[in-house]
Amino acid sequence: MEKTLFQKIADREIPAQIVYEDDRCVAFRDISPAAPVHILLVPRKPVTSLAAAGAEDAELLAHLMLKVGDIARAEGIAEGGFRTVLNTGADGGQTVPHLHIHIMGGRSMQWPPG
Ligand code: AMP
Fold first, then answer.
1. I need a labelling partner for 43 at 20 to 30 A (CA). Which of 11, 16, 50, 81 fits?
2. Looking at ligand 1, which residue's alpha carbon is closest to its atom 8?
3. Is 99 in the pocket of ligand 1 (CB under 6 A)?
């Protein structure tokens, strides 16, 4: 199976500004930031999307969720607040078929999103 873009980043085959990694996930700066802080948190396992995740991924998803707060604190955006986004599928605006959590902060966010 061809590696996904985010697998290649996690495996350091494509350069990225990695801000956090452990045995289950990697976080790096979005190449086209939509906020002063814009990080993508991805599992090393190439789960295609939230819709493709299964019960076997429960612990992995919990791990990712808990890492969001750690990363936000490390980036200095936890206190002021931040936005997390999980785009799923074409209508959800997902462009990379490897589950990823956008962590965005450093400015005031609007709602609803476009
Ligand atoms: P999504 O539209 O939710 O699938 O988000 C994909 C995100 O990946 C976008 O915000 C892109 O800017 C970002 N992206 C694409 N290629 C790279 C890359 N090589 N390094 C870092 N971020 C990337």
1. 81
2. 30
3. no
Cβ neighbors of 69 (< 8 A, separation 6 or more) are 78
Instruction: Return the CATH number of the domain spanning residue range 5-105.
Output: 3.30.428.10
Q: What is the pLDDT of residue 114?
A: 84
Dump pLDDT digits (tens) for 24-82: 999 999 999 999 999 999 999 999 999 999 999 999 999 999 999 999 999 999 999 99
Residue ranges of the alpha helices (H) in the chain?
Answer: 5-10, 58-75
Ligand 1 touching residue 91 (CB < 6 A) = no
So where are the chain's domains? 5-105
